[in-house]
Design a protein that fits this description.
The chain is 52% helix and 13% strand. It has 14 helices and 9 strands.
């Protein structure tokens, strides 16, 4: 039902500025709306408000990224700020002129939601397009991390490990150079193109679902890391407690070590993605956190160079932090219930 002239409303809608979509928020009595910045006084006087949210082109996730998203991270942050200002009395509406779902579509959606495990092969078929759409030009922040992390801190750690192995006679110099170069190339690529990688992972979340949890990004990362670590140990050869990777025991150890890392620290990147999705952090903060969490990848050097017992201690130490963060931002930041209205039932946003 269209709001009356006395209804206090909040409107979220895209506007075009310099050829790009920008999210704008307006508040006030229906028909007399003013621009509003979430976090500033709302003016609702604790009497409640009706929120009308149009689809947005400022954010995308999953396979449907070419179409407007229902909500942006900023919308979710706005809803929390508005709910606090209104004492929790919010009526939320999504504005859509799309035809309503049929009974068959509702039944199909319920059946899909009840499935314990779902895999969508369409993500693999569309992987090339998803990656191209995720490509982002590196900025100064990315190159700063390249200098301060990849070619200083991370390189120093790698040189420490290979030097120790070479001095003990376990690792030939040629293999040490090849291994360090392989690690550095990976590190440099994923640092400079971190924004592209993060966006791509965010797009892959829906590939695999376990009940209502989207874990496609975690599955993708696990397979990727297994492949990369197999190549690295193939170059290194047997070291410390590690057998030759081409043996069944060595191959199984790669899968186990990556699983250890994924179980303990794997949720860190999905947790950062979720923090961004719910609007708890900005895009810039997300990229800084991505670079910081990537430092935990250095724990894998202990496994790669044969320090299996110490690696188990390290991975166990981050388990509570990583899973705790993922749990908080997937459990306590849920979207409110929305009703769907047509555009002619929503207040004019202009």
């Amino acid at each position: 039902m269209k709001p009356t002239a006395d209804t206090f409303v909040i409107v979220a809608k895209d506007v075009q500025k310099d050829g790009a979509a920008v999210r704008e928020y307006r508040v006030g009595k229906a028909g007399a709306l003013q621009a509003w910045v979430p976090g500033t006084p709302l003016g609702a006087n604790g009497s409640g408000a009706s929120v009308y949210i149009w689809p947005t082109k400022t954010y995308s996730e999953g396979m449907g990224s070419s179409a407007p998203a229902d909500l942006s991270p900023e919308d979710r942050a706005m809803l929390r700020a508005a709910r606090k200002a209104c004492g929790g009395a919010l009526s939320c509406y999504k504005v859509s002129d799309a035809p309503p779902r049929t009974a068959e579509q509702h039944a199909a959606a319920r059946k899909e939601a009840s499935a314990p495990l779902r895999f969508d092969a369409g993500y693999l078929r569309d992987m090339g397009r998803l990656f191209k759409e995720s490509m982002t030009k590196p900025n100064r922040q990315d190159y700063t991390w390249l200098a301060t992390k990849t070619f200083t801190f991370n390189l120093a750690i790698r040189l420490f490990f290979v030097s120790k192995a070479v001095n003990s006679g376990e690792l030939p110099m040629v293999r040490a150079v090849l291994s360090t170069s392989w690690y550095q190339i990976q590190d440099a690529v994923f640092t400079v193109f971190g924004q592209t990688y993060m966006k791509f992972l965010g797009r892959m979340t829906g590939m695999v679902r376990v009940f209502n949890a989207q874990v496609g990004d975690m599955v993708f990362v696990y397979i990727q890391l297994c492949g990369f670590e197999f190549l690295n140990r193939l170059v290194l050869g047997p070291l410390g407690e590690n057998p030759l990777v081409m043996t069944p025991q060595g191959l199984a150890l790669v899968f186990i070590n990556i699983l250890q890392g994924m179980v303990s620290g794997g949720p860190l990147i999905p947790a950062v993605n979720q923090m961004r999705r719910v609007g708890a952090i900005s895009h810039s903060t997300m990229m800084h956190l991505y670079q910081v969490t990537s430092l935990t990848m250095q724990f894998g050097l202990f496994a790669a160079f044969g320090y299996q017992k110490f690696y188990a201690m390290l991975t166990g130490s981050v388990l509570v932090l990583s899973w705790g963060s993922y749990f908080v931002f997937t459990t306590f930041y849920k979207d409110p219930e929305f009703a769907v209205v047509r555009s002619d039932e929503a207040p004019a946003a202009g």
